């Protein structure tokens, strides 16, 4: 068992008239080397739950444990350390920084580590080759097609060699062929030892044979997918 | 240590990349910022250089000058006043001086004419300042013709050009012999323009001035310290006037810079969110923005200050000349001796580079303490 959630709740605008509980008491576990998918309609709480697991935000109440460490109560500084070394993120709109080249975007998460420039560049080049982007290395990211941008986002997520990959609606901007290719890439990553968490309401994702487990959310509550 | 340096290098690289991506904004900000530094530094350098010139000019001047006053105007001093002063304790030397101004209609300039005792000039010899040599196109051996008080033409042969430490004194200066001077201006042997007294002990100057007033009731002793004070306040006043004139543009720049530096666009906010989401700490985002502030303000400071230095010392502060210079003796153009005041430099640095750098950090701090999960939405 790798990630354990115990009665996790998340409120927005707490104490105000527009208070809203996005997650209402979720208790579950996600296992290592698996591809798990959070399924649900828009507004069901998938992204909120993923961002708490990925240390991008903290739950209002409840506990999240990573291995034997409770991460839900860590101060921001430590949360960033965990996020930097443990998680790689693939966002719905890729969130690449325009104006920077492909390789610069990929190396971005590693800048604060202060690695030697040549070893960082080698690491980025290996990823570019692995994801068939070597010839695009110095192109600005604006020139890329949707599929290429997606692969650059994957490379960026992998640059610090994280244990867990978090992909939020990764196929929302891809056609079904590219979506299937993306799932095949995730399968390879899972086989190489990565744990993958995806949120999606795309059947290409949650019906994909490479997904090991589907957890369904509705209005912040788990309605299916108990282990 | 190496890791920390490498990290800073990555942040600076990233910052430079960001600035290149927003070329228009960066260049616009840099040019306005540079212009402000240029104007402020020009005024400061110019005023300081003028003050330094004045100090250099007066360094060798006598401690006391005695003028004769008649009906509130200064007039020629009879030579017998030197005898009337007699022997005053503390005065090491006393002598009469001959000097005045000559208006040259050919170049519409006033020259300062002085009698030189050291040069052993003959009646037709003249030594001229660099400014006059430039304006009239004269060199050693050439003749300069001046019109005497009777309207007769007097031709003087240039025997030497003045190369003084301070062009302020030498630029428009003519040195002639005492005989030549008296002939040119029609001044009797028994008169001087003023008298000068050298005093060795500065503490005695005030006392000697009091004695002089008693001995020569129609005279006015002028002390070197008083002249220096007058120069000081004159240039400080002019600098103040100029700074007030510039205040409008400085304020406009502050508003502009505050808006540019502090107002984060939606795109910048998103970028900060992405950086945090991919693992940058709040402090690291701020350091990156700090470098942006430092690079822009340091570049503006260096370019602006260098341009101001060239403007003041190589083009004689052409832009501010009418306000900062401007009394008759300075009409022939002259070049200032380069001189920089460290304190003034530091003041300008701390009042421009620091506030701007801080102005860039504050909004980033506000943006970067928000949860990075905003980029997920």
Q: What is the share of helical residues of chain A?
A: 25-40%
Question: How many alpha or pi helices of chain B?
Answer: 12
Let me know the largest β-sheet of chain B.
6 strands, mixed
How many domains of chain B, as an integer?
Answer: 2
Order of strands in the sheet with most strands of chain A: 6-7-8-3-9-10
Largest sheet features of chain A: 6 strands, mixed
How many E strands of chain A? 10
The strands making up the biggest β-sheet of chain B line up spatially as 5-6-10-7-9-8
Structural class given helices, strands, pairing of chain A? alpha/beta
Approximately what portion of the residues of chain B adopt beta-strand conformation?
15-25%
- Taking all residues together, what is the mean pLDDT of chain B? 82
Element-by-element helix/strand order of chain A: EEEHEEHEHHHEHEHEE
Task: Tell me what the structure shows.
The complex is a heterodimer of chains A (227) and B (377). Chain A is of the alpha/beta class and 227 residues long. Chain A has 7 helices and 10 strands. In chain A, a hairpin with a 7-residue loop joins strand 1 and strand 2 (20-30). The longest helix of chain A has 16 residues, at 176-191. The radius of gyration of chain A is 17 Å and the shape is globular. The model of chain A has no long low-confidence stretch (mean pLDDT 89). Chain B has 377 residues and is of the alpha+beta class. Chain B folds into 2 domains: 7-58 and 236-376, no CATH class; 62-232, Barwin-like endoglucanases. Helices cover 55% and strands 18% of the residues of chain B. Chain B contains 12 helices and 13 strands. Chain B has helices at 2-21, 23-59, 80-85, 130-136, 167-170, 178-185, 205-215, 224-262, 266-277, 282-314, 321-324, 342-368; strands spanning 64-70, 73-75, 77-78, 91-97, 99-104, 109-115, 125-128, 143-147, 153-161, 173-176, 191-192, 194-199, 219-223. Chain B is elongated, with a radius of gyration of 30 Å. The model of chain B is unreliable at 326-332 (pLDDT under 50). Classes of the chains: A alpha/beta (227), B alpha+beta (377). Chains A and B meet through helix 1 and helix 2 of A and helix 1 and helix 9 of B.
């Amino acid at each position: 068992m790798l990630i354990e959630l115990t009665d996790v709740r998340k409120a927005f605008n707490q104490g105000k008239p527009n208070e809203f509980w996005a997650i209402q008491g979720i208790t579950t576990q996600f296992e290592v080397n698996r591809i798990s998918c959070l399924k649900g309609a828009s507004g069901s709480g998938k992204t909120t739950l993923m961002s708490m697991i990925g240390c991008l935000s903290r739950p209002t109440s409840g506990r999240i444990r990573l291995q034997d460490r409770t991460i839900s109560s860590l101060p921001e500084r430590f949360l960033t350390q965990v996020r930097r070394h443990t998680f790689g993120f693939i966002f719905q709109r890729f969130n690449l920084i325009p104006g920077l080249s492909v390789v610069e975007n990929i190396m971005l998460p590693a800048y604060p580590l202060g690695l030697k420039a040549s070893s960082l560049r080698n690491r980025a080049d290996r990823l570019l080759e692995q994801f068939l982007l070597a010839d695009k290395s110095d192109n600005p990211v604006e020139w890329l097609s949707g599929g290429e941008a997606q692969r650059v986002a994957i490379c960026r997520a992998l640059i610090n060699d994280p244990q867990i990959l978090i992909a939020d609606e990764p196929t929302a901007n891809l056609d079904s062929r590219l979506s299937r290719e993306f799932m095949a890439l995730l399968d390879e990553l899972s086989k190489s030892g990565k744990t993958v968490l995806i949120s999606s309401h795309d059947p290409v994702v949650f019906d994909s044979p490479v997904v090991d487990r589907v957890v369904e959310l509705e209005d912040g509550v788990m309605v299916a997918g108990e282990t | 240590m190496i890791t920390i340096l490498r990290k800073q290098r990555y942040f600076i690289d990233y910052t430079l990349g960001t600035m290149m991506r927003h070329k228009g904004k960066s260049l616009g900000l840099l040019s306005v910022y540079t212009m402000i530094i240029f104007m402020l530094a020009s005024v400061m350098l110019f005023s300081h250089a003028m003050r330094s010139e004045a100090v250099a000019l007066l360094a060798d001047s006598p401690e006391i000058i005695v003028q004769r006053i008649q009906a509130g105007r200064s007039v020629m001093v009879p030579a017998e006043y030197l005898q009337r002063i007699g022997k005053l304790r503390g005065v090491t030397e006393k002598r009469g001086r001959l000097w005045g101004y000559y208006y040259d209609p050919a170049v519409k300039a006033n020259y300062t004419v002085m009698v030189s005792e050291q040069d052993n000039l003959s009646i037709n010899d003249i030594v001229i300042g660099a400014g006059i040599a430039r304006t009239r196109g004269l060199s050693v051996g050439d003749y300069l013709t001046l019109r005497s008080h009777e309207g007769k033409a007097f031709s003087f042969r240039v025997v030497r050009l003045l190369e003084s430490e301070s062009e302020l004194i030498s630029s428009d200066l003519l040195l002639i012999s005492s005989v030549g001077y008296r002939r040119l201006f029609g001044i009797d042997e028994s008169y001087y323009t003023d008298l000068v007294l050298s005093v060795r002990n500065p503490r005695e100057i005030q006392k000697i001035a009091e004695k002089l007033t008693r001995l020569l009731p129609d005279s006015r002793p002028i002390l070197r310290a008083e002249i220096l004070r007058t120069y000081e306040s004159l240039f400080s006043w002019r600098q103040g006037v100029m700074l007030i004139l510039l205040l409008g543009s400085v304020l406009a720049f502050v508003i502009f810079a505050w808006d540019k530096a502090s107002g984060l666009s939606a795109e910048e906010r998103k970028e900060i969110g992405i950086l945090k989401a991919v693992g940058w700490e709040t402090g690291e985002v701020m350091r990156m923005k700090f470098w942006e502030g430092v690079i822009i303000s340091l570049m503006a400071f260096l370019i602006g200050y260098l341009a101001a230095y060239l403007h003041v010392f190589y083009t004689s502060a052409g832009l501010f000349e009418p306000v900062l210079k401007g009394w008759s003796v300075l009409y022939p153009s002259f070049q200032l001796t380069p001189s920089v005041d460290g304190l003034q430099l530091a003041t300008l640095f701390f009042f421009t580079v620091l506030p701007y750098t801080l102005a860039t950090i504050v909004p980033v701090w506000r943006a970067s303490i928000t949860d990075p999960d905003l980029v997920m939405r």
